[in-house]
Design goal:
Number of strands: 5
Number of domains: 1
Organism: Asanoa ishikariensis
Number of helices: 3
CATH superfamily: HIT-like
Shape: globular
Pfam family, one: HIT
CATH class: Alpha Beta
Active site: 96 (tele-amp-histidine intermediate)
Distance between the termini: 44 Å
Radius of gyration: 14 Å
Structural class: alpha+beta
CATH topology: HIT family, subunit A
Domain HIT: 7-110
Motif (Histidine triad motif): 94-98
Order of helices and strands: HEEEHEEH
CATH architecture: 2-Layer Sandwich
Oligomer: single chain
Largest sheet: 5 strands, antiparallel
């Protein structure tokens, strides 16, 4: 029985839309469609691995390096005192790291995600993060 690709693999392949802010041959980063805060970005290895604890150590190191790069960018882009980082892994069976601008502990509560942010807000977040990376 064939296993279906994860939704993240479909975004990475271009079969589903995604607002990318970073891409290399091993890791991509794109905006969450259910953000905790504006600029909430997912850092995802291209390889489809379910659990971050089973990632090759070198790949995990690269994921966290990219997450730190994105953390600095979202802080700058959204004038945030901190960048949040969460590893959950229950919503999609493809290892990923949540990186987002954080202004306080309430920003870490997944009960507060916005399920239908305006397209214009996502476009603006993408533009601001890409500019902060330059």
């Amino acid at each position: 029985m064939a296993v279906m690709p994860s939704v993240f693999s479909m975004v990475i392949a271009g079969d589903l839309p995604g607002r990318f802010v970073y891409r290399d041959d091993r890791v991509v980063a794109f905006l969450s469609i259910a953000p905790l805060t504006q600029g909430h970005t997912l850092v995802v290895p291209v390889a489809e691995v379910d659990d971050w604890t089973t990632l090759d150590p070198e790949l995990w190191s690269h994921v966290t390096s990219v997450a730190a790069l994105l953390g600095r960018a979202v802080r700058k882009a959204f004038d945030a005192p901190r960048a949040g980082l969460v590893i959950a892994g229950f919503e999609v069976r493809h290892a990923h790291v949540h990186v987002f601008p954080a202004h306080g502990m309430a920003d870490f509560d997944f009960a507060n995600v916005r399920h239908d942010p305006p397209e214009s807000e996502l476009d603006e977040a993408q533009r601001r993060i890409v500019a902060a990376l330059e």
